[in-house]
């Protein structure tokens, strides 16, 4: 049986939730039937991991299990030393979504320059002191250079203050701010943003179900701030999704040049008033946003579990 480690932050005082209650748990149950053992944890030394696995429908503690590969779902920005220990402990075994990808995607400015160099179009981006650019654009979005899970993002207009730094992904630590050209939203909305999960599979890339976040009032368009999440096909024309698909495939192919273990990417598209999608960023640690609607949509719930299985299955077969 092949064993794949999912690198996650352990909380020693709490056992994981019941496997059937989470997509990862259900995926682990299914993969075990395929001969793939899934272990969750961060303690790994010389290619042997300790943590949790599914056993008889429940999570059970395991110690010193030999692993053939691992997939990175670790909060390494907050716990960098623990992450480095875990990566060192893998002793050269394949790591899904390697640190080179994570570092590039976290640096939104460097990632955009990389994609632009590979012919992927994106709205212009400049440093936060881009007063001249903002006057030309009319509207922009100020956001942390290294991401912030939606924190610190705000819409700005000519004449607004453009600070050089602001809150970022790590609580209590300011990040450099960058300015990206704003996209005029569709009629009767403050903004529509599509998150589309793409994953590597044999022979190419498998797109997930694109999820649209729609806000009538907030141009930041974040579910945590009140935006609605729906299947993108419910609110966008097929031509819009076809255009996004073409750009997504180009971006995925470009980032795949970083290595064979670039396995999953979350691409965010802002849709303009004419229904044209604009790639605004790529996430190397994607949530997929499918979980936002999985509870009320059985098809999305099934796709969510498959999205968890796919990279682990790919790693087990490398």
Please characterize this protein's 3D structure:
This protein is α+β, with helices and mostly antiparallel strands and 318 residues long. It folds into 3 domains: 95 residues, Rossmann fold (3-Layer(aba) Sandwich), CATH 3.40.50; 162 residues, D-amino Acid Aminotransferase, Chain A, domain 1 (2-Layer Sandwich); 59 residues. It is built from 9 helices and 17 strands. The protein has a 6-stranded mixed sheet with strand order 4-3-2-1-5-6. Strands 12, 13, 14, 15, 16 and 17 form a 6-stranded antiparallel sheet that branches. Helix 1 packs across helix 9. It is globular. The two termini are 14 Å apart.
Key structural traits:
29% helix; Rossmann fold; 6-stranded antiparallel sheet; 6-stranded mixed sheet; 9 helices; alpha+beta; D-amino Acid Aminotransferase, Chain A, domain 1; globular; 3 domains; 318 residues
> Helix segment count?
9
Distance between the termini: 14 Å
Low-pLDDT segments, ≥5 res: none
CATH class of the largest domain: Alpha Beta
Mean pLDDT: 91
Q: Quickly give the CATH architecture of the largest domain.
A: 2-Layer Sandwich
SSE pattern, N- to C-terminal: EHEEEEHEHHEHEEEEEEEEHHEEHH
CATH topology of the largest domain: D-amino Acid Aminotransferase, Chain A, domain 1
| Oligomer status | single chain
Query: Quick one: how many beta strands?
Result: 17
């Amino acid at each position: 049986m092949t064993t794949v480690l999912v690198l996650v932050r352990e909380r020693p005082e709490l056992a994981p939730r019941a496997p059937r209650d989470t997509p990862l748990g259900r995926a682990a149950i299914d993969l075990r039937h395929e001969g793939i053992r899934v272990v969750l944890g961060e303690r790994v030394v010389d290619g042997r991991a300790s943590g949790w696995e599914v056993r008889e429908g429940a999570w059970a503690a395991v110690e010193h299990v030999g692993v053939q590969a691992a997939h990175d779902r670790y909060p390494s920005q907050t716990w960098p030393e623990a992450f480095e220990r875990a990566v060192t402990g893998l002793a050269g075994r394949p790591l899904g979504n390697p640190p080179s990808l994570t570092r590039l995607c976290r640096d939104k400015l460097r990632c955009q320059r990389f994609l632009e160099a590979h012919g992927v179009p994106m709205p212009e981006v400049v440093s936060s002191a881009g007063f001249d650019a903002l006057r030309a654009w009319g509207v922009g979005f100020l956001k942390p250079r290294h991401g912030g899970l939606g924190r610190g993002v705000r819409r700005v207009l000519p004449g607004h203050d453009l600070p050089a730094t602001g809150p970022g992904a790590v609580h209590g630590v300011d990040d450099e701010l960058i300015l990206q050209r704003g996209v005029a939203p569709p009629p009767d909305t403050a903004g529509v943003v599509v998150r589309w999960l793409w994953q590597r599979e044999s022979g190419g890339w498998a797109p997930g179900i694109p999820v649209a976040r729609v806000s009538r009032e907030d141009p930041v368009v974040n579910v945590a701030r009140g935006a609605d999440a729906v299947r993108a096909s419910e609110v966008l024309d097929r031509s819009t999704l076809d255009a996004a698909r073409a750009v997504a495939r180009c971006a995925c192919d470009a980032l795949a040049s970083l290595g064979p273990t670039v396995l999953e990417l979350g691409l965010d598209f802002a849709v303009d008033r004419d229904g044209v999608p604009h790639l605004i960023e790529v996430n190397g640690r994607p949530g997929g946003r499918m979980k936002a609607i999985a509870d009320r949509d059985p098809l999305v719930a099934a796709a969510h579990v498959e999205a968890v299985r796919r990279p682990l299955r790919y790693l087990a077969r490398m």
